[in-house]
Amino acid sequence: MKRTLFAPEHEAFRETVRTFLAKEVAPHYEQWTADGIVSREAWLAAGRQGLLGIAVPEEYGGGGAPDFRYGVVLAEEFTRVGAAGLAVGLHNDVIGPYLTGLATEEQKRRWLPGFCSGEIITAIAMTEPGAGSDLQGIRTTAEDKGDHFLLNGAKTFISNGILADLVVVVAKTTPEGGARGLSLLVVERGMEGFERGRNLEKIGQHAQDTAELFFHDVKVPRENLLGEPDSAFLHLVTNLPQERLAIAVAGIAAAEHLLELTTTYVKEREAFGRPISTFQHIRFEIAEMATECAVTRTFVDRCIEDHDRGELDAVHASMAKWWATELQKRVADRCLQLHGGYGYMKEFPVARAFTDGRVQTIYGGTTEIMKEIIGRSLLA
Question: Of 77, 212, 243, 256, which residue is the catalytic one?
């Protein structure tokens, strides 16, 4: 089905992204994978190309285009080349809204120019060793000392954790407040007591630095409080739909790309003297995946349109997130199977997609949490 989502300017931007990926990412990606981290130069190159801070107002060095469809183009093109390590989507679509929507004028002028140029790489730290989706379980504390907060605790599974120059930390500022007693504090590289642990070894996305973070009596200046005190829960709830939609966008893009690769492969691969695409089972597998992708694409594109109109709610974002990522997981498994032994070889894109994409149903809120959000809305 013909997509009606994009205007000519989005397609022109797509060509810019493809050129960037071919020049600045593809030649270096294997080295980044071996190193377990992306070069900072890649971030600076993304900034020079205008791929960072697209929604940030021009006065702070951004693109001045608060149109989520540009983020969709980025997610689709990065997914097609398997460049999960360069977490531009996390930077733009997840952390960007906290800075543009909650930061004071002074904070914006201090952080946003570097955010847009690639000189400041960002991360958000919610997950802890004992607390994932349950915000009430957060144990990291920030004691109000007047002119600063004294931050103590630990975070884990933090994307961009090694490279990050600026980390938005979710911490408990009112212990008796539960999820309503949390605040957002911005911790900057070099603050005394802020330490990084291991660059964690994962089964996929090896070029993406994912780390443990530790805070030992870190004095976070009061001017680094992001938003209102004890309001992190509200801020998180407001921004999570976009994060989950961004993950859904990557999920359906990955499924479609894998289907495309596999359709080509089964036409070329022969068994018993003929292409395996002539076997009914193969045709049925391709037909099922194509149908599932088409249906999912229609729903996700509708969610994107709703989001750009300011109408996407948490329930539909959760639907898109869990469905698209579970589809990605199923398609990756089935496409690997149709590649036979070659699908298990690291040099084949389907193998990398199989391991890189597995986390999609976990981060940003697990499938189970998404279903709980949807179920509560229907049965409350």
Answer: 243
